[in-house]
Amino acid sequence: MSSNSDADLAELRAAGYRIVHSPRTGNAWLVLGYRDVVEILQDHDTYSSLYALGGPVDQINPPEVVAEIPEFLKANVTGVVDSDPPHHTRFRDNLHRAYAGHRINKWKPDIQRLAQELAARLEENVGEIDLATRYVMPFVQHAMGLVMGIPSEDVDAVAAWGLDMASLIAPTVPVDDKIAAARRLQKYEEWADTFIESKRVGTRDDVISVYIRGDADAAPMLEHDVMNCLLTHFVAGTMTTRNAILTTTHQLLRDRSLWEHAVNLPQEYAARALEEGMRLVAPHRGLMRVTTREVVLDSTTFPAGTMLIPLLGSANLDENQFTAADKFDPDRSNSREHLAFGTGIHACIGMHLARQEGRIAIGTLLSDLPSLRLTRPTEQPDYIPDIFFRGISSLYVAA
């Protein structure tokens, strides 16, 4: 699943392939079609998520890396995406409470203010700027910090530690880099121990406080799970939302008439465009599933223990589900049928927050910076070479 594989997948879909074997992904089978991806994601009994991230950190890394990882990663931790019921159910109940609409909605004025402040700084600049680093990334990181209850002065450090955590999971990262990441995470563990203790007192209503204390009939998480979820959810939430905002903004700016039309209806159009942007380029590629019994997919029999990767982005481009699937059309009637957030019990728990952030970020650009334009309109942007996420690395604009 390299960053340039989309054209290959399109050719395979056009040729009628729905499932293909991929030695490049640990001999897993890549699931391309919308219908099959939905079937796998919605049948958690048959398709286990225990190895969604490859396995426990202390089991998928070499001994020299394991020797450096902090204590919380040596416990039986889960980021929720890599668990099955009934263990998953307990975590899911907590997360449903943590990311409930009423809790997320109360942060909307603060997130809106953050977007406006960042947009105002862009307007002060003369010449070319990278929208990814100057607007989108600080926006999603600090918005996530607000909702999670992370002090503003610590957000940058948490973001860096989140990438260190991702490095320990990714199989393509060199061993020396993994060792360095593991050592930095020892500092995170020290910070998190103090941070979590501070959340145990008071009546804060942020996401991490719900992780720690629970809510109503939702049980609290154990401390090592809080430490793990804080980082994995921070990096997953910020990277996917970042990618969705950049993809959508790029698609709007590519067509000046479309951008100018959107400027006249900034909030309404931002919402529609965001859904279509996430469909066109899913910000997350998809996570591993392992069959628990013999199954038949696309007339092929797979034994128990078969590794499958349901590719969300490929499913979103299935012509059997979306007409002219490779075209960006914010007025598409079924855009919201996309699988960018997955489906089933592992559907993205933070989708309400992601949509809120995306609508605010794009809507603010449309309303506050209507003259925004691409400075390299003929260039195709590069994509981040990442095994988990799919997003534009840089987007050069002028205000």
What's the SSE blueprint?
Layout: H1 6-14, E1 19-22, E2 28-31, H2 34-42, E3 47-48, H3 57-60, H4 63-66, H5 87-98, H6 101-105, H7 108-124, E4 129-130, H8 131-148, H9 155-169, H10 175-199, H11 207-213, H12 223-254, H13 256-263, H14 266-280, E5 289-291, E6 295-297, E7 300-302, E8 307-310, H15 312-315, H16 351-368, E9 373-374, E10 396-398
Parallel strand pairs: 2-8
Antiparallel strand pairs: 1-2, 3-5, 4-10, 5-8, 6-7, 9-10
Helix pairs in contact: 5-11, 7-8, 7-16, 8-12, 9-10, 9-12, 12-14, 12-16, 14-16
Question: What's the rounded overall pLDDT mean?
Answer: 93
Reported CATH architecture: Orthogonal Bundle
The tally of structural domains comes to 1
Shape: globular
Low-confidence stretches: none
Looking across the biggest beta sheet, what order are the strands in?
1-2-8-5-3
Helical stretch count? 16
What would you say this structure looks like, in words?
The protein is α+β, with helices and mostly antiparallel strands. The protein has a single domain (6-398), classed as Cytochrome P450 (Cytochrome p450). Helix content is 51%, strand content 8%. It has 16 helices and ten strands. The protein has helices at 6-14, 34-42, 57-60, 63-66, 87-98, 101-105, 108-124, 131-148, 155-169, 175-199, 207-213, 223-254, 256-263, 266-280, 312-315, 351-368, and strands at 19-22, 28-31, 47-48, 129-130, 289-291, 295-297, 300-302, 307-310, 373-374, 396-398. The strands form three sheets. Strands 1-2-8-5-3 form a five-stranded mixed beta sheet. Strands 4-10-9 form a three-stranded antiparallel beta sheet. Strand 6 (295-297) and strand 7 form a beta hairpin. Helix 14 packs across helix 16 (351-368). The longest helix has 32 residues, at 223-254. The model has no long low-confidence stretch (mean pLDDT 93).
